[in-house]
Structures are given as structure tokens and as C-alpha cells.
């Protein structure tokens, strides 16, 4: 299903939109997005759009994935916490660019599908768990980088506490979908946090707790 022509078009579009980090572009090129979208949408996997996945969630637009990843300023030494495994696509992109990704998902079915995709693609530096993203993963803290793929109303305090010195956290924040922005928080060596307001976005809301099994 991998369509090289569509993929090249997508990479060129991302460059035009300001994605300049060659490692991020290379990861987008190498990770097959069609492995993470439902079969009914596979023919649209390389369009620069968000697509629906199970449990009322979405796989983010490639531009937003690339933008947030670029904002994290990753390298192979970094340990990353991801809140919201979702389809697993963003997780797989991160895995190509850092040492290890710890990813938390509140929907068991999404987590199982993502884990199956990681296994199929032989990605071995991702550790996942079912849990409440608001609580983070204290046993594995501190993290060099934290990325959140659902919009919280305010920055979750527990996540900020789990960000290490010289750490960067990138997350969408906003009370409703019409008023969300990506924030980049940077923590210095003394634990002081500075905040930058970046791109306006629309993400699914961040919900506390683990989803009830239907």
C-alpha cells in the first residue's frame, strides 16, 4: 500500500509548510502511515489530513505530527514520554529519533492495535501502558522530553514535575477546540519553566482516567 509518489508529495508539502528538520522529514518518509490508519482510509494515508480511528479518536495530520516532533528538538540520547498513544503513528516517528519512548493510552483497544503495528514494523524502543495520561509515568521519570497528543485545559502539573532539567514539553492546551494552541514549555537546570505559545490547533480533549471497556 506504500505509495512512493504520494509520500514524496507529502514531504514536499511539509517542507513548504516550514518543516525543515531533515531527521523529522526522514522519519515521516520512513514510517508507513498506512500501517496506522483504518483499512477504509488507507488510500488517503499520505494526504496531509487528520483521519478518524477507533474510539472517537483521530490520527493527527502529518504536518502537526512533524511540527510537534520538530519542536521537541530530539536526538538519540533522549528519553521521551508520550501521552496518548492513539494510532501509534506519532509514537513510531518519535521512536526513530530518540533512545526510548514511553507511551500511555487510556483506550485498551487502541493500545493493542498500536502495539501490533509496532511489532509488525519491528520497532523495539517503545514501552507502552494502559493508564491515565494526567498522572504520567512517575516510575520512569524524569523524562528529557514530553509530548501530549490531546488537549488539556491547563498544563497537567504531574507532567511538568516529571520533566527533567533542560527538558522540553510540547502539548496542545485550550478549553474548547476553537481555542487551542500548541505550547512549548522549557525547564532549565534550576527547574524554572518558560512557556511559548505556538501553532493554533484542534485536538481531541484530554480526558482523565482509563476508558471504560464497552
Summarize the structure.
This protein has 214 residues and is of the alpha/beta class.
Strand line-up in the sheet with most strands? 5-4-3-6-7-8-9
Mean pLDDT: 94
Q: How many angstroms does the end-to-end distance come to?
A: 31 Å
Query: Could you list the spans in which at least 5 consecutive residues all have pLDDT below 50?
Result: none
Taken together, the total number of domains comes to 1
CATH superfamily: Vaccinia Virus protein VP39
- What structural class do helix, strand and pairing data support? alpha/beta
Give the number of DSSP strands. 9
Q: Using only CA atoms, what is the Rg? A: 16 Å
Architecture, according to CATH? 3-Layer(aba) Sandwich
**What top-tier CATH class fits best?**
Alpha Beta
**Biggest sheet statistics:** 7 strands, mixed
Question: Which outline best applies?
Answer: globular
Strand content: 25-35%
Q: Helix and strand succession?
A: HHEEHEHEHEEHEEE
Determine the CATH topology: Rossmann fold
The oligomeric state of the chains shown is single chain
Task: Please tally the helical runs, counting DSSP H or I stretches of 4 or more residues.
Answer: 6
Main location: cytoplasm
InterPro entries: PCMT, SAM-dependent_MTases_sf
EC number: 2.1.1.77
Enzyme class: transferase
Helix and strand layout, with pairings?
Elements: H1 4-16, H2 22-30, E1 51-52, E2 58-59, H3 62-72, E3 79-83, H4 89-97, E4 100-105, H5 108-120, E5 126-130, E6 143-148, H6 157-162, E7 163-173, E8 180-187, E9 193-201
Parallel strand pairs: 3-4, 3-6, 4-5, 6-7
Antiparallel strand pairs: 1-2, 7-8, 8-9
Amino acid at each position: 500500500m506504500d505509495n512512493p509518489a504520494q509520500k514524496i508529495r507529502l514531504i514536499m508539502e511539509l517542507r513548504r509548510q516550514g518543516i525543515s528538520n531533515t531527521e523529522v522529514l526522514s522519519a515521516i518518509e520512513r514510517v508507513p502511515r498506512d500501517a496506522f490508519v483504518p483499512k477504509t482510509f488507507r488510500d488517503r494515508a499520505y494526504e496531509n489530513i487528520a483521519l478518524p480511528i477507533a474510539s472517537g479518536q483521530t490520527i493527527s495530520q502529518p504536518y502537526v505530527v512533524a511540527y510537534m516532533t520538530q519542536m521537541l528538538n530530539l536526538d538519540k540520547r533522549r528519553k521521551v514520554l508520550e501521552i496518548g498513544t492513539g494510532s501509534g503513528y506519532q509514537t513510531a516517528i518519535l521512536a526513530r529519533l530518540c533512545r526510548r519512548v514511553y507511551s500511555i493510552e487510556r483506550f485498551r483497544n487502541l493500545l493493542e492495535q498500536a502495539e501490533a503495528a509496532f511489532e509488525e514494523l519491528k520497532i523495539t524502543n517503545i514501552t507502552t501502558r494502559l493508564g491515565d495520561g494526567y498522572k504520567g509515568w512517575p516510575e520512569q521519570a524524569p523524562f528529557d522530553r514530553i509530548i501530549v497528543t490531546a488537549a488539556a485545559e491547563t498544563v497537567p502539573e504531574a507532567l511538568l514535575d516529571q520533566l527533567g532539567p533542560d527538558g522540553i514539553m510540547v502539548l496542545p492546551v485550550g478549553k474548547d477546540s476553537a481555542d487551542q494552541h500548541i505550547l512549548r514549555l522549557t525547564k532549565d537546570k534550576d527547574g524554572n519553566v518558560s512557556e511559548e505559545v505556538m501553532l493554533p490547533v484542534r485536538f481531541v480533549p484530554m480526558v482523565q482516567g482509563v476508558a471504560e471497556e464497552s
